[in-house]
Amino acid sequence: MLLFLIRRLLLIIPVLFGLLLLTFFMLRLGGNDPAAIMAGDNATPEMIARIREELGLNQPLVVQFWDYLVSVLRGDFGVSLFSQRPVSEDILDKLPATLELTLVALVIATVLGILLGTLAGVWRNSIFDHSVRIVSVAGLATASFWFAIMLQLVFAMGFEILPLRGRLPTGMAPPPDITGMYIFDSLVTGHFAITWQAILHIIMPAVTISLGGVATVARFTRSAVVASLQSEYANYEQAVGYPRHRVVFPYVLRNSLVTPVTQVGLLFGGFISNAVAVEAVFDWPGLGSYLVQAIFTSDYQVVLAVTLVIGAIYGVVNILVDMTQGLLDPRVAEKM
Amino acid sequence: MLILKKFLRDLPAVLGALIVLAAVILAIFPELLVDNVDRINRGNIIMRLKPPSADMPFGTDDLGRNIFERVIVGTRSALTISLFVVVVSMIVGVPLGLIAGYRSGWASSAIMRVTDVFLAVPQLILAIAIAQLLGRGQISAMIALAVTYWPFFTRTVYAETQKVRASLFVEALEGYGASKTRIMLFHILPNVAAPVIVRATVGMGFVILTAAVLGFLGVGAVPPAPDWGLQISEGRKYLPEQWWYATFPGLAILLLVLGFNLLGDGLRDLVDPRLRRS
Amino acid sequence: MSDAILSVRDLKLSVKGDAGLAQILDHVDFSIHPGEVLGLVGESGCGKSTLIRSIMGLPPKGARIESGSVTFKGQSLMDPKIAQTLRGREIGFIPQDPFQAFNPVFTVGDQILEILRWSGLPDDPKGGRYTKELRAKHRARLIEVLHAVQIPDPEEALTRFPHQFSGGQRQRILIAGALASRPSVILADEPTTALDVTTQMQILRLLRELAKDFNVAMLFVTHDFGVVAQICDRVTVMYAGQTVETGTTRQIIDAPRHPYTGMLMACHPERATEITGIPGQVSSPLTPPPGCRFAPRCPRATEACTTARPGLDRRADGRRIACIHEKEVA
């Protein structure tokens, strides 16, 4: 298992290198001149030339890439043109907000998805089953940013029971910084009023992001439960006197989780994509809105760094998914 | 014939097919529901932000334009973008997947490594970056989406090709001395066609959603194009009083994507009974 | 002869499917007495599996019992509640395919102990909770039985997963699972067909010995008269959902009386002098012939065979035969 982990972690490195290569050349070849942007609208050609010199932009691209690579390996992602702060600091600031959001969305997607999928599979072809199918097909067809706006329209503007935007009410100070995830930090430090507000604020964005995930997990769980219930071992378990509820839980269910869990890796990619637009709708100060802003302001250092960080997170999540599969299925574990 | 019969018994899939068919017809002949297609971008300030009525079922927008007509005409750009992206992705992705899956050697592993890099971050993120680099507009969005979507086809075809490659009939053909190109084109391709078609159908819906995000974020279509994502972004400013402005374009996305997904599910059931829904 | 513990009386069962109403079982009739091994013989598709499932109170979806009864010591197994309490406790089960019967993601110990958890052992405290002590006791019993089925190092075996055992070993563990709760009857659904020939012989020998040692009756389903000869005390033969002949193993093998039994035995490779087979096909359960279901393929069939179903009549020597021509002979 440890060997598997190490091998998989090593395999991420060439992919990240490729990603860096791709984004670096894409931005340098296709983009505007960062020196010109930095110098501002009233810059003289001399000023721009001086900035180019300072940034090393008149070096051959290959040399520039090498320099960039070396500094990235040292943990230095450069300085953001927009905020004038080191990119790594900015990322550390924004990352917890996005992680908190995606983690809560992940919990919603797995818990709700598995619950709905299992019940739909057990009560196959019932009205409940059909409703779950309709909802999940629709969930996969909904544009997340539009759904986010609709939630705002109904629950924040209409019924006024949920806050419209942000992570906390304006004026409320965030809890002491431990992980940067407000719900966790406020719980640990005993600021329960903040916890409550943080939960209220995260509901709508997290539900929006998890929408497709709930649908996917429910679908895969359902078909796995249906297949598992018709399997020989489920027959055997009934024949030797297991009560029906035991056949379903834990015996059929544990088997049925292997497939949906493989989907979680894919879901995570969807979550990050959704986060980009959803963070914009809810003014959620995370990595997604940071990236969008950087793209619009041609803040290349930021785009490069955030893409790399997202790629790394994505890779780690996929390893975690494979390991969870190993925990659920001993046959998979043996191959690790 | 049997397949058609089986398909027709799958009500949700038939519904999906009907939605897609209706959308295609409206994209080609918007005149069926729109009085004057050339005038949909022309505003009328007196008719500004009127709620839905019998005359204008989706109301009007901030420039007094008929939202219903703009949503209908928007079908055309949604379908154009997604069709372009899916077709280009197939043209690029399918041959690459075939080669990578059937041959072994440096070319094959190079293809898969490049694919891995593209799949290492969510498609949307690369697409936004590329669309922004190319400059705002529908054409940029289309190119950005195509450049980032082909790896999905490569992956699918690669996996399927490897399955087929291991099968007995391919071994037999190789034994007879059939050429590799011939085996790929005439024996493997038809076998991977079904999953590719399913992927393409679902992909149409997926691309519509992604393109809408680009439009919403402002890296896609530019005003006054009747793009759904763009309309939602503009309509958002008038919430909650003028709720109809942002609501109806979103429902249009939902309906069309739903159509493709239902159709894709139905096709998948025909092709791969293992994932059968009932 | 003592009273039967398990009897199937005139069971008629139909299953409603996409293609219509299939009459799967038609007047199936036999009984099992304490400690005896009864062979249930018939070709695949003759309704053996449906019959086994119905005996366990788990008839297939869409099944309807039109007449007859299935009783265990006088209790009706057609009552789902009664059947649930008897499954595993009084009626053990050995499945056909040891490769498919285990749940792949749980240890064999967990799975077999789960049987004992719900069946209990005869000397367990009544109505008590499922405590650690009880589980330990069940474990000890299971280990004892695993010794009996010759699993090396049973303690350790309990912690392993199904895929870590060979097919023969898995079948031994499943046999232990059927025996552990001290049932009075075991249903064995072709327990050796999925195994290779040498393993088959070992498992058969083991089953024969265990049936004696544990004094348990067994319904042994098979399509193979070679297996019947090795293990069964009595045999009942089924054709297309109907019982056609019942008797002791000696009687049937030495002198099959129903034409179908004779032809089926002639198909057995060790006995067949030439490859004969039975001409024609098993009739569809959707449109069974009105009289004897074997009539369309029977060389001795006459007009009378196609009009009325022959009764399963008892003969002087104790065997029962459902053939009108056999009456004339007898």
What's the overall average pLDDT of chain A, rounded?
Answer: 89
Number of discrete helical segments of chain B: 10
* Assembly type: heterotrimer
What CATH architecture label of the largest domain in chain A applies? Orthogonal Bundle
Major beta-sheet overview of chain A: none
Radius of gyration of chain A (Å): 24 Å
Distance between the termini of chain A: 6 Å
Order of helices and strands of chain A: HHHHHHHHHHHHHH
Task: List the main descriptive attributes of the protein structure presented here.
heterotrimer, B: 278 residues, mainly alpha, C: 330 residues, alpha/beta, Rossmann fold, eight-stranded mixed sheet
Outline of this structure?
Helices cover about 80% and strands about 0% of the residues of chain A. Chain A has about 325 residues and is an all-alpha fold. In chain A, about 45% of the residues are buried.
Your description of this structure?
The complex is a heterotrimer of chains A (336), B (278) and C (330). Chain A has 336 residues and is mainly alpha-helical. Chain A has 14 helices and no strands. The model of chain A has no long low-confidence stretch (mean pLDDT 89). With 278 residues, chain B is mainly alpha-helical. In chain B, 49% of the residues are buried. The mean pLDDT of chain B is 89. Chain C folds into 2 domains: 6-90 and 183-329, Rossmann fold (3-Layer(aba) Sandwich); 102-182, no CATH class. Chain C is built from 12 helices and 12 strands. Chain C has helices spanning 48-55, 80-86, 98-101, 108-119, 132-148, 154-157, 167-179, 197-213, 225-231, 249-254, 259-266, 324-329; strands at 6-17, 20-32, 37-41, 63-72, 75-76, 91-94, 185-189, 217-222, 234-239, 242-248, 313-314, 320-321. In chain C, the strands form 2 sheets. An 8-stranded mixed β-sheet of chain C has the order 6-7-8-3-9-10-12-11, sandwiched between helices. Chain C starts with 5 loop residues before the first strand and ends with a helix. The model of chain C has no long low-confidence stretch (mean pLDDT 90). Classes of the chains: A mainly alpha (336), B mainly alpha (278), C alpha/beta (330). Chains A and B meet through helix 1, helix 6, helix 7, helix 11 and helix 12 of A and helix 4, helix 5, helix 8 and helix 10 of B.
Topology summary:
The complex is a heterotrimer of chains A (336), B (278) and C (330).
Chain A: H1 2-30, H2 34-39, H3 45-55, H4 61-73, H5 87-122, H6 127-141, H7 144-158, H8 182-189, H9 192-229, H10 232-239, H11 244-282, H12 287-296, H13 300-328, H14 330-334
Helix pairs in contact in A: 1-13, 5-6, 5-9, 5-11, 6-9, 7-9, 7-11, 8-9, 9-11, 11-12, 11-13, 12-13
Chain B: H1 2-9, H2 11-28, H3 67-102, H4 106-119, H5 123-134, H6 138-165, H7 168-176, H8 180-217, H9 228-235, H10 243-271
Helix pairs in contact in B: 2-3, 2-10, 3-4, 3-6, 3-8, 3-10, 4-6, 5-6, 6-8, 8-9, 8-10, 9-10
Chain C: E1 6-17, E2 20-32, E3 37-41, H1 48-55, E4 63-72, E5 75-76, H2 80-86, E6 91-94, H3 98-101, H4 108-119, H5 132-148, H6 154-157, H7 167-179, E7 185-189, H8 197-213, E8 217-222, H9 225-231, E9 234-239, E10 242-248, H10 249-254, H11 259-266, E11 313-314, E12 320-321, H12 324-329
Parallel strand pairs in C: 3-8, 3-9, 6-7, 7-8
Antiparallel strand pairs in C: 1-2, 1-4, 4-5, 9-10, 10-12, 11-12
